[in-house]
Design brief:
Elements: H1 14-26, E1 35-42, E2 47-52, H2 56-79, E3 85-92, E4 95-102, E5 105-111, H3 117-133, H4 142-149
Antiparallel strand pairs: 1-2, 1-5, 3-4, 4-5
């Protein structure tokens, strides 16, 4: 269940709500990305929140890579500290890691190599934009943020 704040008078939230409806109800299967794990860090490399998605077997296979994902996230945050926005893609064993920095936060996700990277980065940017508009959202559990905003990308997600 997801409730969006929308104003017919000002138009606030209309595009975000519409994007969510289109993503959830009409999204093309080839445009879906399965996010295995995510890490949110500040520009100093301090991890704010993290999440591993999937069923227990999937989580077990990602566990070792998840430790490395956290290290890569910290390094990316420190490397891009001076920039306003930055995007980077790198390999991590049999996975890809997409890093996106916007403003004071960096969001890194682990995806399969066959998944569309542009979709992962679009999701990351939307979440970071949401954090900049609603700073209180940063304190929410990262797994819950992904599950509420992009439920099809983190099916069976736990955190």
């Amino acid at each position: 269940f997801n409730i969006k704040k929308v104003s017919a008078l000002t138009g606030q939230g209309v595009y975000e709500a519409w994007d969510w409806i289109v993503d959830v109800l009409c999204g093309a299967q080839q445009w879906k990305v399965k996010i295995g794990a995510a890490v949110l860090a500040d520009i100093s490399g301090n991890i704010i929140s993290e999440a591993i998605f999937g069923n227990p077997n999937e989580q077990a296979t990602v566990a070792n890579d998840f430790k490395k994902l956290k290290e890569l996230s910290k390094m990316f945050a420190v490397e891009t500290k001076e920039s306003i926005q930055s995007i980077k893609l790198e390999n991590l064993f049999k996975k890809h890691v997409s890093h996106v920095k916007r403003g004071a936060y960096c969001l890194s996700v682990m995806i399969d190599p066959i998944d569309p990277v542009t979709r992962a980065q679009q999701i990351q940017l939307r979440i970071l934009e949401n954090f900049s508009r609603n700073p209180a959202e940063i304190n929410k559990n990262l797994g819950e943020v992904f599950e509420s905003k992009f439920p099809l990308e983190v099916e069976g997600g736990t955190h």
